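Sample pair:
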Amino acid sequence: MADFWRSCGYSLLERGADGRLIVTDDYLRAYFTRPELAPVEGSCANERALHAALMQNPRLNVEERRIAAIRDDDARENYRVMLRFRAQLLAAPSLEAFYCGLFQHDVAVPPLFVDQTVQVILRGILEGDDDGLKARAAELFFRKQRVNIDSGAIRLADDETVEMHATSGALGNLGKLILEAQTPLRSVELDVLDAKTQAEYWRRDERFDTVLQLNSSHPGCAALCRVLEAWIAHFHCTPVAISPVREIPDQEWVWHVGLDAEATAMLNEIYNGGEVNTERMKRMIGLYRVDFRNPSDMRTELAGKPVFLGLAVTPDYRLRMKPQNLLLNLPLARRA
């Protein structure tokens, strides 16, 4: 299988004995080559000198006076943000530990850096897997999606890509499918991935221009379930089985986790005896049952009981998944 998501920096990382990803000098250097930090024609000598020093030694201790000596206001702030981010990365024993730590302390990290961290962790999780549908489903973890529901079909496209097509006037088949509900599926059969076309993903993995269908009977839904299983197993070292369900039986509903803010709010309201109107419930595009293969991995009072997950879209039919909820909110006996 060819490499994929090359720009995320996975090849620059190392793996520890426990399979976790270890930050290297080259991984840090990649951040210092970002447009926000790379010198431009108008960069002053102090900025150029600092950048050169960090490229030579990306772990260099940088005193505030060196940043204050940079002439450009934006450049100074960008260096401060990056160096705070670097300090947090280097303080953690692994990239996974850094990511987990973000949600346990009130520390500001640019959302883009958080999404990039999720992507590179998923790249490691999917190493050696040749299923393009799983890689496409994994995009939900770190890229906002635009959702179209037409004649019962639930289709997801990358929000940024759709917006780019729409604003550039180059609205292709993918954009039409999402923005015009009546676009025939046959006109975009290579854009909508299924079991037959999943290999197409590897040719365009960083274009983010394929559509994932998420109906419970579609292989795209099964792919998302497998990625969710792998994410939980990687972080918590506990195997689970995840499957789509049409509804949550009252007698089994003892614990739930929303995979996004909308689903969390809806599930909480219903569980606490409230009512969610029909129109709002239509925005719940996925319900999933989680069964722990080792019930002893769960809190004693919940051992052997299922956990239910929900996935919902905003009123303007965007989906912004929060994979950290699976780190924080599962009823585990212990944290890995």
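The CA atoms of residues 26 and 228 lie 29 Å apart.
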